[in-house]
């Protein structure tokens, strides 16, 4: 195989695509802002972490040794409010939702990061960084509250393009008259009743939101690292404030590439908890296979907005079924020949198809992770497998066995790059897809088999109107019938769109 094209990624800081060159040859350091753990994660979270999981996987495919850090915010206003409502310890509540988040990530086949730090475990690093910022004259203490002074940050706004004059006082939070500049933000908040607190040089309290990522990224990756990622909603103020405070603590602080994923929209409006128009990951995966959600998200380029729709989730599910049904049929056909010695050349046409397929995948992925194109590129090798399977049933020749074997391996290898290859068996995934299809249809397996039996009787009686009606009713709820010599079976409604 030829060497993949050089990876290019869009840098939010420079507003252009750039060739990726890591600070240390062969190694990549990457930090992605994690969830605030106070509730079940929603599809917007899935969007971000699938996108950066794809990046993580592709960097490893390119041969890089990747140190991937994704944090948990387990100390925050939202967590405290929810814990007080439930009369639960805030750290206990956030720990519970951290676990729920990790379960969702496992379902979505997101590889575990190298480090998953929690704010509550890194108070020493946070307090140390705040102390440095104060010592460098860029923050001030007001009765136990420490504020960052944006006037001391000459490049403030370099990421978002916003000017300080754009920030209207009180737009995001209540005006605090103790601030020297209304845009100044909290690094440390003094303790309040019914809130967790830690001891600090400025009194008991807890960190502001922005400082945690600066402290933890510096702790695990150093002051200067390769990639910092998150959703577009974090560009301002979170990432802007990170840049300002990190540089104030250490002048050498620098992130080479800032990457941001687009929103998930519902009816072309940003999906969010505050608007009440969001779906949790669990709500979706109760009806669709987690890989179907993954494909749905990957069929839009990571920087573009995704508009949520059941129709597009259905298409993604159909695509997933087609992949796994093709692999299953291939496995069944090849099972008697797995141990056979096949000292034959790969047929030229298949060899060319594989070379072209891998080249297209690498070209798409190296061009700022165009997973939308990569997912569609699967169709050609899958069609080739099905075409060869049709011929194979008539004539089992060694070159054909070799062709199917190498096509199967190639498809699985690329599925792994995109996080679509399950640790479960192919047949288990197919059964999971059938179970999800039944959930969506509102029918049980027994009810479907009863309909099939009634249709069989109707066909025997040449009552084709009834037979067609039963087929159409099942099609309407997403179930397709297959009439085979051995009898009629059902599968989730499937096509290759």
Describe the structure.
This protein is α/β, with parallel strands linked by helices and 497 residues long. Helix content is 47%, strand content 14%. It is built from 16 helices and 15 strands. Helix 15 runs antiparallel to helix 16 (464-476). The longest helix has 25 residues, at 310-334. It is globular and about 85 Å long. The model is unreliable at 168-172 (pLDDT under 50).
Quick structural overview:
Helix content is 47%, strand content 14%.
* Number of strand segments: 15
Assembly classification: single chain
Distance between the termini: 29 Å
The proportion of residues in beta strands is 5-15%
Molecular shape: globular
Q: How is the biggest beta sheet arranged?
A: 4 strands, parallel
Q: Average pLDDT value?
A: 94
Helix content: 40-55%
Structural classification: alpha/beta
- Please list the strands of the largest sheet in the order they lie side by side: 4-3-9-10
Poorly predicted ranges: 168-172
**SS element count, helices:** 16
What is the CA-based Rg, rounded? Answer: 27 Å
Domain tRNA synthetases class I catalytic: 21-316
EC number: 6.1.1.16
Organism: Acorus calamus
GO molecular function: ATP binding; cysteine-tRNA ligase activity; metal ion binding
SSE blueprint:
Blueprint: E1 8-11, E2 16-19, E3 27-32, H1 43-61, E4 65-70, H2 77-86, H3 90-107, H4 123-135, E5 139-142, E6 145-148, E7 185-190, E8 205-207, H5 209-221, E9 224-231, H6 235-249, E10 254-261, E11 264-266, E12 269-270, H7 281-285, H8 290-298, E13 306-307, H9 310-334, H10 348-366, H11 371-376, H12 379-394, H13 398-417, H14 426-441, H15 445-460, H16 464-476, E14 479-484, E15 487-492
Parallel strand pairs: 3-4, 3-9, 9-10, 11-13
Antiparallel strand pairs: 1-2, 5-6, 6-7, 7-8, 11-12, 14-15
Helix pairs in contact: 2-3, 4-5, 4-6, 5-6, 8-9, 9-12, 9-13, 9-14, 10-13, 12-13, 15-16
């Amino acid at each position: 195989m030829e060497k993949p094209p050089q990876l290019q990624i869009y840098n939010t800081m420079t507003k252009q695509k750039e060739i990726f060159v890591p600070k240390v040859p062969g190694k990549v350091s990457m930090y992605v802002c994690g969830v605030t753990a106070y509730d079940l994660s929603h599809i917007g979270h899935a969007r971000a972490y699938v996108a950066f999981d794809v990046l993580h996987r592709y960097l490893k495919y390119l041969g890089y040794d990747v140190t991937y850090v994704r944090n948990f915010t387990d100390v925050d206003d939202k967590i405290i409010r929810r814990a007080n409502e439930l009369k639960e310890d805030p750290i206990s509540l956030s720990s519970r939702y951290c676990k729920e988040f990790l379960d969702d990530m496992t379902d979505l086949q997101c590889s575990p990061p190298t480090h998953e730090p929690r704010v509550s475990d890194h108070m020493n690093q946070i307090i140390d960084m705040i102390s440095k910022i104060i010592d460098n004259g860029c923050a001030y203490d007001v009765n136990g509250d420490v504020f960052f002074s944006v006037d001391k940050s000459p490049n403030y706004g370099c990421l978002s393009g916003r000017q300080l004059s754009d920030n209207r006082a009180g737009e995001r939070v209540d005006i605090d008259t103790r601030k020297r500049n209304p845009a100044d933000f909290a690094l440390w908040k003094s303790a309040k009743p019914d809130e967790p607190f830690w001891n600090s040089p400025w009194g008991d309290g807890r960190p502001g939101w922005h400082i945690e990522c600066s402290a933890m990224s510096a702790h695990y990756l150093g002051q200067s690292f390769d990639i910092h990622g998150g959703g577009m909603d974090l560009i301002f103020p979170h990432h802007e404030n990170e840049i300002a405070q990190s540089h104030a603590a250490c002048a050498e602080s620098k992130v080479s590439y800032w990457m941001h994923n687009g929103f998930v929209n519902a009816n072309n409006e940003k999906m969010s908890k505050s608007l009440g128009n969001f779906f949790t990951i669990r709500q979706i995966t109760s009806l669709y296979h987690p890989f179907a959600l993954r494909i749905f998200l990957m069929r839009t380029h990571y920087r573009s907005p995704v508009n949520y729709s059941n129709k597009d989730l259905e298409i993604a599910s159909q695509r997933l079924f087609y992949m796994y049904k093709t692999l299953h049929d291939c496995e069944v056909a090849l099972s008697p020949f797995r141990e056979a010695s096949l000292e034959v050349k790969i047929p030229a046409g298949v060899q060319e198809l594989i070379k072209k397929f891998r080249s297209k995948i690498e070209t798409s992925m190296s061009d700022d992770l165009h997973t939308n194109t990569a997912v569609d590129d699967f169709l050609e090798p899958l069609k080739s497998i099905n075409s060869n399977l049709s011929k194979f049933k008539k004539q089992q020749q060694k070159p054909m066995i070799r062709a199917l074997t190498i096509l199967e391996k190639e498809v699985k290898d690329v599925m792994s790059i995109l996080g679509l290859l399950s640790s479960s068996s192919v047949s288990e995934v197919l059964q999971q897809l059938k179970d999800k299809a039944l959930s969506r249809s509102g029918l049980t397996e027994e009810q479907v088999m009863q309909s099939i039996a009634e249709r069989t009787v109707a066909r025997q009686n040449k009552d084709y109107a009834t037979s067609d009606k039963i087929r159409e009713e099942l099609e309407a709820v997403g179930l397709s019938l297959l009439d085979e010599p051995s009898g009629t079976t059902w599968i989730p409604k499937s096509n290759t769109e």
